Task: structure prediction
Amino acid sequence: MERKAETPVVTLVIADAALGAAAIEAKLRSAPGLRVVTGDLAGLAELVDRHQPTVLVLATSPRGVGAALDRLGGLTRAPSVIVLTPDPHEVWTPPARRAGVRAVLPSDATAAELSVALAATTAGLILLHPDALRRAPQARAAARETVDTSLTQREHEILEMMAEGLSNRTIAVRLKISRYTVKFHVAAILAKLGATSRTEAVTLGVRHGLISL
Result:
Protein backbone atom coordinates (compact mmCIF):
# COMPACT_ATOMS: atom_id res chain seq x y z
CA MET A 1 0.00 0.00 0.00
CA GLU A 2 1.32 3.47 -0.90
CA ARG A 3 1.94 5.84 1.98
CA LYS A 4 0.27 9.20 1.60
CA ALA A 5 2.65 12.13 1.52
CA GLU A 6 2.40 14.19 4.68
CA THR A 7 0.76 17.58 4.31
CA PRO A 8 3.47 20.22 4.67
CA VAL A 9 3.29 22.72 7.50
CA VAL A 10 2.74 26.08 5.85
CA THR A 11 5.01 28.63 7.50
CA LEU A 12 4.70 32.33 6.71
CA VAL A 13 7.82 34.45 7.31
CA ILE A 14 7.28 38.19 7.75
CA ALA A 15 10.28 40.48 8.25
CA ASP A 16 11.02 44.20 8.11
CA ALA A 17 13.11 43.70 4.97
CA ALA A 18 13.04 41.17 2.11
CA LEU A 19 16.66 40.26 2.85
CA GLY A 20 15.76 39.39 6.43
CA ALA A 21 12.88 37.17 5.30
CA ALA A 22 15.15 35.42 2.80
CA ALA A 23 17.76 34.76 5.51
CA ILE A 24 15.13 33.14 7.75
CA GLU A 25 13.80 31.09 4.85
CA ALA A 26 17.33 29.79 4.24
CA LYS A 27 17.58 28.71 7.88
CA LEU A 28 14.29 26.83 7.60
CA ARG A 29 15.26 24.84 4.49
CA SER A 30 16.78 22.07 6.58
CA ALA A 31 13.54 21.53 8.53
CA PRO A 32 11.50 18.69 6.96
CA GLY A 33 7.84 18.96 6.03
CA LEU A 34 7.68 22.74 5.62
CA ARG A 35 6.35 24.99 2.89
CA VAL A 36 7.73 28.47 3.48
CA VAL A 37 6.11 31.67 2.20
CA THR A 38 7.72 35.08 2.74
CA GLY A 39 6.29 38.59 2.79
CA ASP A 40 6.21 41.94 4.56
CA LEU A 41 4.08 43.48 7.29
CA ALA A 42 1.96 45.52 4.88
CA GLY A 43 0.63 42.36 3.23
CA LEU A 44 0.31 40.27 6.39
CA ALA A 45 -3.48 39.93 6.54
CA GLU A 46 -3.78 39.12 2.84
CA LEU A 47 -0.97 36.55 3.01
CA VAL A 48 -2.53 34.81 6.02
CA ASP A 49 -5.90 34.73 4.29
CA ARG A 50 -4.43 33.36 1.05
CA HIS A 51 -2.02 30.73 2.41
CA GLN A 52 -3.69 29.80 5.73
CA PRO A 53 -0.33 29.21 7.48
CA THR A 54 -0.08 27.04 10.56
CA VAL A 55 2.83 29.11 11.87
CA LEU A 56 3.84 32.74 11.41
CA VAL A 57 7.51 33.61 11.94
CA LEU A 58 7.59 37.32 12.68
CA ALA A 59 10.99 39.05 12.59
CA THR A 60 10.71 42.68 13.64
CA SER A 61 11.07 45.15 16.52
CA PRO A 62 8.72 45.00 19.54
CA ARG A 63 6.70 47.86 18.03
CA GLY A 64 6.46 45.98 14.75
CA VAL A 65 5.26 42.92 16.64
CA GLY A 66 2.49 44.99 18.24
CA ALA A 67 1.36 46.30 14.84
CA ALA A 68 1.40 42.79 13.35
CA LEU A 69 -0.61 41.29 16.20
CA ASP A 70 -3.18 44.04 15.83
CA ARG A 71 -3.60 43.04 12.16
CA LEU A 72 -4.00 39.39 13.13
CA GLY A 73 -6.69 40.33 15.63
CA GLY A 74 -9.15 41.05 12.86
CA LEU A 75 -8.79 37.61 11.24
CA THR A 76 -11.13 34.69 11.85
CA ARG A 77 -8.25 32.18 11.76
CA ALA A 78 -4.86 33.36 12.97
CA PRO A 79 -1.70 31.20 13.02
CA SER A 80 0.53 30.45 15.98
CA VAL A 81 3.32 33.01 16.11
CA ILE A 82 7.09 32.68 16.56
CA VAL A 83 8.71 36.07 17.19
CA LEU A 84 12.33 36.93 16.38
CA THR A 85 13.16 40.30 17.90
CA PRO A 86 16.09 42.33 19.27
CA ASP A 87 14.41 42.57 22.70
CA PRO A 88 12.53 39.34 23.54
CA HIS A 89 11.45 40.65 26.94
CA GLU A 90 9.40 43.43 25.34
CA VAL A 91 7.36 40.88 23.40
CA TRP A 92 6.45 38.20 25.94
CA THR A 93 3.33 39.86 27.39
CA PRO A 94 -0.21 38.67 28.25
CA PRO A 95 -1.72 40.43 25.20
CA ALA A 96 0.89 38.80 22.94
CA ARG A 97 0.11 35.37 24.38
CA ARG A 98 -3.62 35.95 23.81
CA ALA A 99 -2.82 36.97 20.23
CA GLY A 100 -1.13 33.62 19.56
CA VAL A 101 2.57 34.18 20.32
CA ARG A 102 3.98 30.77 21.28
CA ALA A 103 7.73 31.26 20.93
CA VAL A 104 10.08 34.22 21.39
CA LEU A 105 13.70 34.15 20.21
CA PRO A 106 16.40 36.77 19.61
CA SER A 107 16.83 38.12 16.08
CA ASP A 108 20.00 36.07 15.54
CA ALA A 109 18.39 32.70 16.36
CA THR A 110 20.16 29.81 14.69
CA ALA A 111 18.63 27.33 12.25
CA ALA A 112 18.58 24.72 15.03
CA GLU A 113 16.77 27.08 17.42
CA LEU A 114 14.21 27.92 14.74
CA SER A 115 13.66 24.24 14.01
CA VAL A 116 13.03 23.49 17.69
CA ALA A 117 10.68 26.49 17.97
CA LEU A 118 8.68 25.25 14.96
CA ALA A 119 8.41 21.75 16.38
CA ALA A 120 7.30 23.08 19.77
CA THR A 121 4.80 25.52 18.29
CA THR A 122 3.15 22.99 15.99
CA ALA A 123 2.86 20.63 18.98
CA GLY A 124 1.02 23.31 20.95
CA LEU A 125 3.95 24.04 23.28
CA ILE A 126 5.61 27.31 24.31
CA LEU A 127 9.30 28.01 23.77
CA LEU A 128 11.08 31.04 25.24
CA HIS A 129 14.63 32.30 25.07
CA PRO A 130 15.88 33.24 28.59
CA ASP A 131 16.05 36.90 27.52
CA ALA A 132 12.27 36.91 27.19
CA LEU A 133 12.00 36.53 30.97
CA ARG A 134 14.47 39.15 32.10
CA ARG A 135 15.20 42.80 31.54
CA ALA A 136 18.10 44.97 32.60
CA PRO A 137 17.33 47.30 35.56
CA GLN A 138 18.60 50.33 33.60
CA ALA A 139 16.17 49.53 30.79
CA ARG A 140 13.27 49.43 33.23
CA ALA A 141 14.32 52.78 34.69
CA ALA A 142 14.59 54.36 31.25
CA ALA A 143 11.11 53.14 30.31
CA ARG A 144 9.61 54.60 33.48
CA GLU A 145 11.16 57.98 32.73
CA THR A 146 9.77 58.22 29.20
CA VAL A 147 6.14 57.24 29.78
CA ASP A 148 3.36 59.65 30.76
CA THR A 149 1.17 57.67 33.17
CA SER A 150 -1.25 60.51 33.97
CA LEU A 151 -4.29 58.96 32.36
CA THR A 152 -7.74 60.34 33.10
CA GLN A 153 -10.35 58.15 34.77
CA ARG A 154 -12.06 57.60 31.41
CA GLU A 155 -8.74 56.70 29.77
CA HIS A 156 -8.10 54.16 32.54
CA GLU A 157 -11.51 52.60 31.91
CA ILE A 158 -10.89 52.35 28.18
CA LEU A 159 -7.37 50.97 28.65
CA GLU A 160 -8.80 48.23 30.87
CA MET A 161 -11.35 47.37 28.18
CA MET A 162 -8.61 47.36 25.55
CA ALA A 163 -6.82 44.80 27.74
CA GLU A 164 -9.98 42.66 27.56
CA GLY A 165 -9.66 42.75 23.79
CA LEU A 166 -12.84 44.78 23.27
CA SER A 167 -13.32 46.70 20.01
CA ASN A 168 -14.03 50.44 19.85
CA ARG A 169 -17.66 49.66 19.01
CA THR A 170 -18.10 47.41 22.05
CA ILE A 171 -16.39 49.94 24.33
CA ALA A 172 -18.68 52.67 22.99
CA VAL A 173 -21.78 50.59 23.74
CA ARG A 174 -20.57 49.67 27.22
CA LEU A 175 -19.72 53.29 28.14
CA LYS A 176 -22.69 54.77 26.22
CA ILE A 177 -20.49 57.10 24.21
CA SER A 178 -19.82 57.42 20.48
CA ARG A 179 -17.20 55.38 18.64
CA TYR A 180 -15.60 58.68 17.60
CA THR A 181 -15.14 59.57 21.28
CA VAL A 182 -13.63 56.15 21.99
CA LYS A 183 -11.26 56.59 19.06
CA PHE A 184 -10.21 59.97 20.47
CA HIS A 185 -9.50 58.46 23.89
CA VAL A 186 -7.56 55.52 22.40
CA ALA A 187 -5.39 57.97 20.45
CA ALA A 188 -4.75 59.94 23.65
CA ILE A 189 -3.79 56.76 25.53
CA LEU A 190 -1.35 55.70 22.82
CA ALA A 191 0.19 59.18 22.74
CA LYS A 192 0.65 59.35 26.52
CA LEU A 193 2.17 55.88 26.75
CA GLY A 194 4.33 56.29 23.67
CA ALA A 195 2.69 53.25 22.07
CA THR A 196 2.14 52.58 18.38
CA SER A 197 -0.59 49.96 18.77
CA ARG A 198 -3.34 48.88 21.16
CA THR A 199 -1.32 45.79 22.07
CA GLU A 200 1.70 47.87 23.02
CA ALA A 201 -0.47 50.30 25.01
CA VAL A 202 -1.88 47.43 27.08
CA THR A 203 1.62 46.03 27.59
CA LEU A 204 2.90 49.40 28.84
CA GLY A 205 -0.19 49.89 30.99
CA VAL A 206 0.46 46.59 32.77
CA ARG A 207 4.19 47.29 33.09
CA HIS A 208 3.58 50.66 34.73
CA GLY A 209 0.88 49.43 37.08
CA LEU A 210 -1.98 51.30 35.38
CA ILE A 211 -3.99 48.12 34.86
CA SER A 212 -3.68 44.47 35.83
CA LEU A 213 -4.53 41.30 33.94
Remarks:
- The longest helix spans residues 179-193.
- The radius of gyration is 19 Å.
- The domain at 138-207 is CATH 1.10.10.10 (Arc Repressor Mutant, subunit A).
- The chain has two domains: 9-135, 138-207.
